[in-house]
Amino acid sequence: MNFIDSTRTTTPSLTFTPTGTIPRDGLHLLHGTLPGEVVCTENLTPFLKLLPCKGKSGISGLFDGHKLFDASWQTMSVDVRPACADDNPEVCNVEIEQTVDMVLDLDRSKRARDNPIPRPVPAAELICDESKPYHSGDFCYPIGASRSQTWSIEDVFGRTIPSSCPLGRDDAQTVCIKVPDSMEVLPSSDAVETRAPDGKSRCYSLHPNQPFNLVVPAQHSSSNSLEAQVVHLERTIIGHGQERGGLRSILTNPSQTDTANFVYFETLPWFMRPFLHTMKTKISYGSEPAVEVPLSDIIKDIFYRPAIDRRRGTQLELVLSVPPASTVTLVYEFEKAILRYTEYPPDANRGFNVAPAIVRVLNRNESIMVPPVYLRTTNLLLPLPTPDFSMPYNVIILTSTVIALAFGNIFNVIIRRFVTLEEVPRRNIKALLLGRVAALKSKLGIKKTEKVA
Hints:
PIG-T, membrane, extended, transmembrane helix, alpha+beta, transmembrane, 5-stranded antiparallel β-sheet, 28% strand, Immunoglobulin-like
């Protein structure tokens, strides 16, 4: 979280609203996003340090970096809001809400315990699709496991919840699960169960000194159909080259009768410089080709804060109105800035992560107070011009080689003594023969012996 600096922090004006009971005079709403980071088990340590029990008890006792970062999808968030007492508004505290969202694959989570060394599934345990025409004793088209299978907290996370956090409230409901009343759930014997009036969830209060485990047996359950989505969103980077590019957002309103009104929020890094004068909007109905329309037909309001190099990013908020059964394409161009060589990450050739866009669906009936609905796109990967980082090392090696060659020749000239041929002492034939004999003896290992009288 210490990587969320001023370049990744914005002050939303239309997308988010401040929460808390403290007066808002002189306060600012800040929103920071870290689109990606190097996966490391120690990344969870700063998050756990904010908890009162530091991951030693409570539901935070399930946190394990290996399990969290091995999930199919995961995200973490920290919300900070002021909270003042009702009877004394001058007494205010800071309330921190930490959230971890994970999407786990049950088979993959159990694999570390049941099959730590990957091995093929035995033939007797294969589930075959018998509807295939080639199905026989020797041929099997395997299908996945059934949706209903037994699982427990210990199976998924490799451990149970140690106990309730002693610093929490006594009436706090530690573990909640969203299941209908007809589904069987087997909690620990000492847990106190509380069911919701709507019959869609139940919560459990943990014992302060007893571990807690939750088992959900395999059983048939009917899944309710999801509510119709208000808007479909797709966001991609277009263009080619190392100098410029484009950003395209495709927004689809699936409703056949209602107009979709929402706020489109983007946070762009400072090295991604958008050109708003190139913004274009196109609309299409069904299979008809897209037709360019004026911006005022789709964009009802705009808030734009330009970036400052190495100080803050670009903030863009658009209030959009998409007609029923239509698809709106929003496109604008941007320029890629040149970074200093010290600002590139170790994996610079991979690209730079761009934070996802956020869509806030506006309430159609303002008289009814409902919590806001937010949608988020996936991260984008922006390629930037990358210098040849090996060039300095090549220059150093070449320079060192040239210096070594020059130094050897110069040193040889300095220490060597040059004389004329006339000054060299003449050697007779006897001296030459004795020298040859001495050299031959040294090669043969013959040592000179002396007689002692």
